Amino acid sequence: MDFWAIALVALMAALTPTTAAAALKGRPKVVLDQLEFPNDLPQAPLYKAHLKKTLAKVTRHADWGAGRKNRIEYRFFVTELSLTEQDGVLRVRCAAVGKLPKGKTAKSKLTFSGEPSKRNDLVKRVLEIVARGVITRLSELERVRRGDIGEAGVRAPRSDQTD
Prior knowledge:
Layout: H1 2-15, H2 19-23, E1 29-36, H3 44-61, E2 71-86, E3 89-99, E4 105-114, H4 119-146
Parallel strand pairs: 1-2
Antiparallel strand pairs: 2-3, 3-4
Helix pairs in contact: 3-4
């Protein structure tokens, strides 16, 4: 009888998730600590609100390598957002930087062109693409920091390329 009781306890212990595994269930609380956006553009508040909404969506879907009991803070800076119209084509140029604590940064730069009549849609699309790139890289850096993936899984861009 004692053998079966011990076997049952051992089986129950094996089936119960460990505290480490339980901590990894769910999504971490990802907090936008600071957002800097150029205010010199027409409709800048509209674009900034869209960017905040996009960042919230992208951070929810990113794999941060952490569970629901964790909190991750990041900062997002739009360093350049310029619109130029030439020969009937609107060109949107955007550059952004995301920062994690302890100096980890991710950068993204994009130039995208389209019809001038679809200005708002074009700017919003560029902001979405840049935000997705920065957040994806930040989440990868966070997974490396937590030991979820090795440094070999992360590669820096080649420095011999220029714009």
